[in-house]
Write a structure and sequence with these properties.
Elements: H1 20-25, E1 30-34, E2 40-43, H2 59-64, H3 72-79, E3 82-86, E4 89-92, H4 101-105, E5 114-116, E6 122-130, H5 131-136
Parallel strand pairs: 1-6
Antiparallel strand pairs: 1-2, 3-4, 3-6, 5-6
């Protein structure tokens, strides 16, 4: 049907379109969920965003903030195969140093998992674990 414009309703996540610079510069709160023992770590722990967690933060910098609290990560580094997952996005540890947090947590196709914390902040849930095990969950 030449000449006709078919209008499709926008996907729910597409109605919240934002400039990429806005996604990079927004202060963020992340919950890291360990797939092997279900421990959870909130970054930053306080509602003060002076911790420097933004969309441009690399995944390696994010993991450094909780690595001392997760001794299992030292073993995973030796073995390899650990990944961070958020929604449909999976990023392996070999890519953490170059990948920004905004690339993991923003997806236009799938709603990202979020939770509201006791202090009122909205946090994005990121799961860390063995790549095959995280994908099946």
């Amino acid at each position: 049907m030449a000449g006709y414009l078919i209008e499709h309703p926008p996907k729910p996540s597409m109605t919240r379109w934002r400039c990429i610079n806005s996604l990079k510069n927004d202060p963020l709160t992340i919950i890291i969920n360990c797939s092997w023992d279900n421990k959870r770590f909130v970054i930053p722990a306080a509602s003060d965003h002076n911790d420097g967690l933004h969309g441009y933060t690399t995944l390696y910098e994010l993991i450094k903030k909780v690595k001392a609290q997760i001794p299992t990560l030292y073993m995973w580094e030796e073995v390899g195969g650990v990944a961070l997952t958020c929604g449909a996005n999976h990023i392996f540890s070999s890519e953490w140093e170059e990948t920004m947090l905004c690339r993991l947590i923003h997806n236009t196709e799938v709603e990202m998992p979020t939770e509201v914390l006791e202090d009122g902040r909205e946090a994005v849930v990121v799961t860390i674990g063995y790549a095959d095990g995280v994908k099946k969950e």
